[in-house]
Amino acid sequence: MTSSASAPPTGGTTATAAARPREPRLTVAPGPHIADRSLTTQRMMADVLLALLPLVAVAIAQFRQYALFQIAVATSAAVIAEWVFARMRGRPATLWDGSAAVTGLILALSLPATAPWYSGAVGAIVAIGVGKAMFGGLGQNLFNPAMVGRAFAMIAFPAALGATAYVNPTLGLDALSGATPLTALKMSGNVTPVLPLVLGMTNGAIGETSALASILGGLYLCARRTASWEIPAGSIAALLIATGLPALVRGVSGWSPLHDLCAGAFLYGAFFIATDPVTSPLTPNGKWIFGIGYGLLVLMIRRLSGYPEGVMFAVLIMNALVPLINRATIPVPVGGPVPSPK
Questions:
Q1: Is cis: bond before 32, omega within 30 of 0?
Q2: Is 166:180 a contact under the CB 8 Å cutoff?
Q3: CATH class of the domain whose range is 41-327
Q4: How many other C-beta atoms are found inside a 10 Å radius of the C-beta of residue 80?
Q5: Boundaries of every domain in the chain
Q6: Do 181 and 204 contact (CB within 8 A), yes or no?
Q7: What is the mean pLDDT of each run of 10 residues along the chain (342 residues)?
Q8: pTM for the model
């Protein structure tokens, strides 16, 4: 009985190759070494668009054609700006990844229903051009593009985006006839019941009125791992603790910690803006720090400044701190820290 292993070699070259011991191939590369190839930019942007559908539905039900107008203008302007700035830099326009549409939609949902068309259009152009293209494109930006555009539009058109822009009783919609809950509290001390804040039966930016819609969409993002759950968890915990401890000491009189949680754009920002993977920390501890900082800053701006809302400023401030947070929270490798060379 014979086998191929005991057969004599038929040629010198084959015998030499068989006799040479195999050396292990060692590939050195930075981690991660195991990656989920299904987690593409296009899939993540599709998840965000799907998660925003509850907010869009509430916005249309509450503000009707005015919500559709804001969404159409800002989203179209963002997509067109993405194409124009890509062509100006001699790069292919990555319109199909959905990032420009997400930026435009998030911006639109942060605007008043009656904002003039040019505020959303200019905000979207600045969001793509300054907030994204100027830093090198998708994945290179330091600040959330939608909030960059929103900040520019607010500075450029203060009358169109300020507190008085939300009140317009001449349009025939009950939702547009009164001040936002946070403005009513700051200016006159009026307390809105919690249930309208949860269901979205109040005035405000078209995407911020329903806490329930933000929670449903946000939980979907976290379940899909498109958003890091540590950021909204840290922000909600920070807000509830910072408002709950004084309430335990003084008692709840009218405005409660639940009001702070559900009113305004806090939950919208916690789930959809602060969780932007490009402009938030990479490390687990850093994500907790980022979320806690966002929650505390929103509360401080609401309480101590003249602005009734502080989500936009809180996000931009925390974005600026992300490089420092990443550096301060580098995980210790297995086996201890790497010794420094002497």
A1: yes
A2: yes
A3: mainly alpha
A4: 18
A5: 41-327
A6: yes
A7: 48 54 64 64 93 97 95 97 90 83 96 94 96 89 96 93 85 86 91 94 94 97 95 97 88 87 96 95 96 97 92 96 95 74 66
A8: 0.86
